[in-house]
Design brief:
- It is a single chain.
- By secondary structure, this protein is mainly beta.
- The chain has 2 domains: 114 residues, Sandwich (Immunoglobulin-like), CATH 2.60.40; 132 residues, Beta Barrel (Lipocalin).
- 7% of the residues lie in helices and 48% in strands.
- It is built from 1 helix and 21 strands.
- The strands form 3 sheets. It has an 8-stranded antiparallel barrel. Strands 5-7-3-1-9 form a 5-stranded mixed sheet, with no helix packed on it.
Length: 282
């Protein structure tokens, strides 16, 4: 067996050497140089501190050719001259060996009213013999900062006493719903058992959130569906489907839940958190 292996290795080595001799490393041909967006989509907050968004466009060339490319703005729900301005002196980008990356700069016009997120697109256009890459369109979203629940959206730190593990701290995130301004989506609601986001509904006064129990937190590979389960403030009374985990919200977005809350499968619980459960915005 050893002899056969040695022969195989020798033959394989010979073939490898022959392969190396017969093939050369591919070389990039500057005739194939192209301009392209480095990202196909970008977003910017309406109240971005700098007031602008810089969208990079890269010209790929080894020799550093001097080339140019035009771009056009296509209005969508966001309109140029109303929601944003293009601050480039012209709609042409010029590339050189020293500056192969150029930027389309968008100035965002902030306002004081809520209208929801809006978007537009930018297309690159061929100029003369300048080729375009696959990423020749970039979609830009302007995120409205006047969302009614903006004060409570973002990253949170959870703090509670675990029935199994004692003091527990974990991270979670609250995100807005794209269609309903009273709904938030919560990721990692229960540590150790949340695989997908669940939703909660905020009242008109923005002082209370109700999170329906028995929502799916995901599917476990061995135990099947993981669900959100809930008890009253003492942990004695189980809350059936149709009930809610109820949290109070203060002006800073801090949420205090006076229910016991857990993640469970048919075989038992992954986690049970006892009241109070405090979610503090970072």
């Amino acid at each position: 067996m050893k002899k056969m292996k040695s022969i195989y290795a020798l033959v394989a080595g010979t073939l490898l050497l022959a392969s190396c001799a017969d093939n050369e490393h591919p070389k990039f041909n500057d005739a194939d140089a192209f301009a392209a967006f480095t990202k196909s989509s970008m977003s910017v907050n309406e109240n971005v501190e700098s007031g602008e968004l810089k969208i990079p466009v890269l010209f790929t060339s080894l020799a550093g050719l001097n080339k140019s490319v035009d771009f056009e703005i296509v209005d969508g729900t966001a309109a140029q001259g109303v929601n944003f301005e293009v601050t480039n002196a012209s709609n042409t980008l010029s590339f050189t060996k020293e500056a192969p990356e150029q930027y389309i700069t968008i100035k965002v016009n902030d306002n004081d009213t809520f209208g929801g997120d809006i978007s537009f697109t930018i297309n690159l256009k061929e100029t003369g013999d300048t080729n375009l890459g696959a990423s020749k369109t970039c979609s830009v979203t302007i995120i409205d900062d006047e969302h009614p629940l903006a004060f409570m959206l973002g990253d949170y730190s959870g703090n509670a006493e675990s029935y199994y593990n004692g003091p527990t701290v974990w991270d979670l995130t609250l995100e807005k719903d794209p269609d309903d301004v009273s709904v938030v989506w919560i990721s990692n609601m229960v540590p150790g058992g949340s695989l997908v986001s669940i939703y909660g509904v905020v009242n008109d006064e923005k002082t209370e959130i109700r999170i329906p129990v028995c929502q799916s937190l995901g599917v476990h590979s061995s135990y099947g569906d993981i669900t959100l389960e809930c008890y009253d403030a003492t942990g004695d009374e189980y809350i059936e489907k149709g009930g809610n985990v109820i949290g109070t919200i203060d002006a800073n977005g801090t949420i205090t839940i006076n229910n016991w809350m857990g993640s469970a499968v048919s075989a038992g619980y992954f986690e049970i958190l006892t009241a109070p459960i405090v979610l503090t915005k970072k």
